[in-house]
Every structure is written in C-alpha cells, then in structure tokens.
Amino acid sequence: MGVRITNIADCVTLNNGVKMPWFGLGVYKAQEGEEVENAVRWALEMGYRSIDTAALYGNERGVGQAIRDSGIPREEVFVTTKVWNSDQGYESTLRAFEESRRRLGFDYVDLYLIHWPVKGKYVETWRALEKLYRDGWVRAIGVSNFQIHHLQDIFAVSDIIPAVNQVEYHPRLTQKPLHAFCRDHGIQLEAWSPLMRGEVLGHPTIVEIAERHGKTPAQVVLRWDVQNEVVTIPKSVRKERIRENADIFDFELTEEEMARIDALNENRRIGADPDNFNF
C-alpha cells in the first residue's frame, strides 16, 4: 500500500528535504477578511498544518492574519501561495512574490508555485522562482497545472526540479501517466478539486465503499487521494465540512477498493485544460 498515513500531521519529505503535510486546507473562493480568517482558524484548531492560497484568490492577508492569531509558531504551519498568470516573467514574478509575502506578513513562504504554464513565460518565471529559492525567501518551489512536456521544458534549463506539481485530480481524472512521471522525477503530486466540486460523491461505487467504512463519500475520496500518495487540499469555509474532510485518518481503503475507485477515471476535467487556456 506504500506510505501509511494515519495522522493529519503526517508529512511527505519533498525532493529538497523540506517536509510538507499530506493534507491541508484550500482557500480558493474564500472571501478576504472574516470568512477566510474563520476557515483558517478552524482548520488550525482541528490540527491542519498546511494552508494553500494564491495571489489570484485575493485572501493572502486573511490567511496570514489567521495564522498569526492562532498562536501556532510560524514554522509549524506550511503555507503555499502562487504567482498569477498576468504577473509571469522574471522581474514581474519577483515583484509579485514580494507583494504576496507582504500581504501574508511573513518573512518567508514555504512553497511558491507557478499557477499555470503560460506559454512563452513559464520558463522565465521558473528562473525567478529559482532566485527566490536560492535567496532563502521560499523553502520549496513548484508548479501547478503542468503537463509532462511543461515539466520537461523546466528540466531542460534548470538544475532545480520542481518540488510539487499541483493539478486537478479526482476519481474522474486520475492522471496516471503524469503521476508516474512525477514520481519517477521526485516531484510530489498535489490535488486541487479532489472532490470534483461534489460531482463524484453520488457515484454508487463511492457510496457503497463509504457505507462499508461508516464514512461519507467525501471522506472516501480524500482517503483515496492520500493512499495514492497525493497531497490533498480540499477547500471549504464551513466549520463542519472542514472537520469532516479531515476525519480520514482512522480507516484505510483496501487495494480492491482503491482499484475500483481508480477505475472510475474518464480523463474528464472540470477545470481548464493546461494545454489550452486563455486567462
């Protein structure tokens, strides 16, 4: 079964030795201010130690504030943010990072990602991330929504391999060739939209497995993620849902159940195609 993940605090060691929790909170669409601050506060109280935001989300200030207010030492919370497409390029990425860092109110960021592979820009953007990493502003650098050929473009110019590739990943889009490629090159796969915006939760296979374990369909899908050794960051601003999502460390799916969920793959996206997007 590979790595046994039995606690919300369990971490994967990234390719540069930095430890990243397998499980965290995503804050996409959480409103800046009270809404995002509450979500982050609740998550931290429940044992979450990883928060994923982005410049695009417009809520970095609230994320930073909630982490400071929690009283948890900064080094115990793993914080990810991302450079948005319109800021890509070398100098503009360095500026965008500094703006994100100031909004967060931190001396450093744990993981900085290129949000999408903007054609003609992402290699230059990667060079900026390398500089931020070498200068100690970020503990790890990575990418989001990169396909194999985008990663190969980075390999061609850089001796720093991305630590993480955060992609759309759920039972309808298992991305097995990409996952295998990342594993072979020491890149940790991370899932956004792991619940496919709820679309997969009514599937009879998932419902049946959930009933067998006395769990919700969402918990089964999130457990499938971590047992596939994919870092997972479900988003929610509701206290009870944040708690429910994290309650996946007291059961394990069998190999047969894992295979049945894998078999639901249709290579179907709900987000944009990384080879064909216009934002």
Explain what you see.
This is Glyoxal reductase. Substrate binds at residue 115. GO terms for molecular function: oxidoreductase activity, acting on the CH-OH group of donors, NAD or NADP as acceptor. This protein has 279 residues and is of the alpha/beta class. The protein has a single domain (17-262), classed as TIM Barrel. Helix content is 38%, strand content 15%. The protein contains ten helices and ten strands. It has an eight-stranded parallel β-sheet. Strands 1-2 form a two-stranded antiparallel sheet. Helix 1 (34-45) crosses helix 2 and helix 3 (90-104) packs across helix 4 (122-134). It is globular. The model has no long low-confidence stretch (mean pLDDT 97).
Sequence-ordered SSE layout with sheet pairings:
Elements: E1 11-13, E2 19-21, E3 25-26, H1 34-45, E4 50-52, H2 60-70, E5 78-83, H3 90-104, E6 109-114, H4 122-134, E7 138-144, H5 148-157, E8 164-168, H6 176-184, E9 188-192, H7 204-213, H8 217-227, E10 231-232, H9 239-246, H10 255-262
Parallel strand pairs: 3-4, 4-5, 5-6, 6-7, 7-8, 8-9, 9-10
Antiparallel strand pairs: 1-2
Helix pairs in contact: 1-2, 2-3, 3-4, 7-8
